[in-house]
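Sample intake sheet
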Amino acid sequence: MIDRSALAASPESERGPALQELEREVEGRMKLRLAARLTFDEIQHLFPKREIEHARRIVGGLYRGSLVAYAYDEAGGQYVILRTGGTLTVIPTHERDLALGREIRARSHLVEGPGHERQRIAWQLEDTRERSRTRAVSLARRGHTTRATRR
């Protein structure tokens, strides 16, 4: 929520910084709504009460949470930001097809680098609702019943 009272209550000489702060907040919220990529500073500004953590780079790492933003760093790296409990978890990816607000499962695994010389950790992202729907359809085709399909 934007605090307009702080702007109105500030003396005219202090309105410049207050207007700049309000402008930054509005711009950040617009980017968030449009699913635009944000900087980590913008993420921290939009979610000031949440700690930002980078996902641990281990094989088999698993994170589940709500997709709150897409981000990038100074080096051009691309990330998704998941709300995982009380923190925001930063996961490197080039994925841009997932809708904000969806529940996402991110799992890390090893992949071979270019030229098959070096392995690196990559992240696979899945929309958990799509995964559940696919599983229910697969089970139904094999003759299994689930709560969703049982009447």
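Comment: The longest helix spans residues 15-33. The radius of gyration is 20 Å.
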